């Protein structure tokens, strides 16, 4: 018999969750929208006219938030949003979507071709690798995608640009923070209210490149 994906307890919590209800009411594709909103508000990041890359974008609630934040007074999106995920994503207006695994060179090359010589204002990554339950292996997977996002940001951000990356407390986290501190002038950790307190999920925000690489 197929293994149950969600426990009864998880389903109960999900139905009761105020962020799930709010997401449904406001038309967001996932409750994760509220995590990004809080981080953008706290950090005063993103405005119309900017260029943003959204890594691990499916089903698309972060891209929805990015669109909203980039609308001008007439409600027209100003700037550019490129989203990437290994899973398909239902199209969103003003969002260029690439389907592929960010760890693969050809997928990265596709993204780099779209970005071209332009410099990004913001890179966001909500990528969460499939976890095996084996702590050391999972820590290595998480660290790997965080480091890839960091390297991409270092190559493509404007000097004053910013990176928001989802990570998890546990083994490997201190190395990720150290790597962030090697790349950015300012690094803060944010745990938005919508991030379940029982989850080890956390977000790192890096701002201001120490030096960019070509
Ligand atoms: C938590 S979900 C993202 C939710 C999204 N931010 C939203 O608000 O709708 C994590 C996503 O990361 C994607 N992902 C994980 N590893 C990836 C990789 N190596 N390359 C591309 N996407 C990846 C998964 O397919 C999944 O859709």
From TrEMBL:
Pfam families: FtsJ
Key words of the record: Cytoplasm, Methyltransferase, rRNA processing, S-adenosyl-L-methionine, Transferase
Gene Ontology terms, MF aspect: methyltransferase activity
Reaction(s) this enzyme catalyzes, per UniProt: uridine(2552) in 23S rRNA + S-adenosyl-L-methionine = 2'-O-methyluridine(2552) in 23S rRNA + S-adenosyl-L-homocysteine + H(+)
Record localization: Cytoplasm
Residues that, per the record, bind S-adenosyl-L-methionine: 60, 62, 85, 101, 126
E.C. no: 2.1.1.166
Domain Ribosomal RNA methyltransferase FtsJ per the UniProt entry, residue ranges: 28-208
Keyword Hydrolase attached: no
Biological process terms in GO annotation: methylation
Protein family per UniProt: Belongs to the class I-like SAM-binding methyltransferase superfamily. RNA methyltransferase RlmE family.
Identification of the protein by name: Ribosomal RNA large subunit methyltransferase E
Phylogenetic lineage: Bacteria, Pseudomonadati, Pseudomonadota, Betaproteobacteria, Burkholderiales
């Amino acid at each position: 018999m197929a293994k149950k994906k969600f426990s009864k307890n998880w389903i109960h919590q999900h139905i009761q969750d105020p962020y799930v209800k709010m997401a449904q009411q406001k038309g967001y594709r996932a409750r994760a929208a509220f995590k990004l909103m809080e981080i953008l508000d706290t950090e005063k990041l993103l405005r119309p006219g900017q260029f943003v890359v959204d890594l691990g974008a499916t089903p698309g609630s972060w891209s929805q938030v990015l669109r909203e934040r980039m609308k001008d007074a007439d409600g027209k999106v100003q700037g550019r949003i490129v989203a990437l995920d290994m899973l398909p994503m239902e199209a969103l207006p003003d969002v260029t979507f690439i389907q592929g695994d960010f760890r693969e060179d050809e997928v990265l090359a596709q993204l780099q071709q779209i970005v071209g010589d332009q410099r990004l204002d913001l890179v966001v990554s909500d990528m969460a690798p499939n976890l095996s339950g084996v702590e050391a292996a999972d820590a290595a997977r998480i660290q790997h995608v965080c480091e890839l996002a960091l390297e991409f940001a270092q190559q493509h951000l404007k000097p004053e640009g910013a990176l928001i990356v989802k990570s998890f407390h546990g083994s490997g986290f201190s190395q990720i923070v150290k790597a962030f501190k090697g790349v950015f002038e300012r690094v803060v950790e944010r745990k938005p209210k919508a991030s379940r307190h029982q989850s080890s999920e956390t977000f790192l925000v890096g701002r201001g490149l120490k030096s960019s690489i070509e």
